[in-house]
Structure formats: structure tokens, C-alpha cells
Amino acid sequence: IHSPSQYTFHLFDRLIMLVRGKVVYFGPTKEATTFAISNSPKVKEMTTGYNDAEFLVDLVTEADRQGMGDGIAEAYLKSSLHEQSEATLDKYISSAHQVALNADIQAELATKSSTV
């Protein structure tokens, strides 16, 4: 959701943000603003009354305009948050492979022809 209200934004547990297809943040929503500010200093300042979602979109957009998008993506890749997120995703993927789908769902998901 692009620029949700503050209330709606905080309903999400996790947030992913991209710049030109590169992940610049993937983690807990409540930590996104702090992470963004610490990894993109002097791009944008968080002021009183600024909606977190709008701030993050503005910050990432401005960083991209200033040619700093790759730097933020690199900072994310080097962060412990990235390592934690990768471990969480691996856990979800491995547990998803263990779930048996009933025949009705398998039939519904099966393709009868090429989708390319």
C-alpha cells in the first residue's frame, strides 16, 4: 500500500521497501523509520507530525533522486536485520513445503496450459 494512513501503516507487522527493484528495508514496521534515518543521514529529517509511511516514502524517493538508493540498499544487505529477515524467510519457506494441500486446492492451483 503506497502511503497508508498512520493507523493503517502500524497494522502491518513487516514492511518491505524497494528502490529501483533493490530492497532497502525488509523488517518490522515499527523499526523502519529508525533504520531509514540511521542509514540515510542528511536525506530527510523526521519532524513532529510527520506520518511514518509518508516520511519513509519521501526519504527513499529523495535518496533515489540524490543517487543514494544503491547505498541504502547496500547498507541493508550488510545489516543484521537482513540476516534476520533471511533466516525468517527461510523458516517460512521450509515450513510451507511441509504443508500438504488437499486435493481440491491442488486441482484449483494446477495449470492446464502454459502461462507464458
Structure overview:
54% of the residues lie in helices and 11% in strands. The protein has 116 residues and is mainly alpha-helical. The protein has one domain (6-109). A two-stranded antiparallel ribbon has the order 1-2. Helix 2 runs parallel beside helix 3. It is elongated, with a radius of gyration of 18 Å. InterPro entries: ABCG_transporters. This is ABC transporter family G domain-containing protein. GO terms for molecular function: ATPase-coupled transmembrane transporter activity. It comes from Chlamydomonas euryale. It is a multi-pass membrane protein.
Short description:
The protein is mainly alpha-helical and 116 residues long.
**How many β-strand stretches?**
2
For the largest sheet, list the strands in their spatial order: 1-2
Provide the gyration radius in Å.
18 Å
The major beta sheet can be summarized as: 2 strands, antiparallel
Oligomer: single chain
Question: Which overall shape is indicated by the principal axes computed on the Cα atoms?
Answer: elongated
Q: How many alpha or pi helices?
A: 6
Number of domains: 1
Distance between the termini: 27 Å
> Taking all residues together, what is the mean pLDDT?
85
Helix content: 40-55%
Structural class: mainly alpha
Order of helices and strands: HEEHHHHH
Q: Proportion of β residues?
A: 5-15%
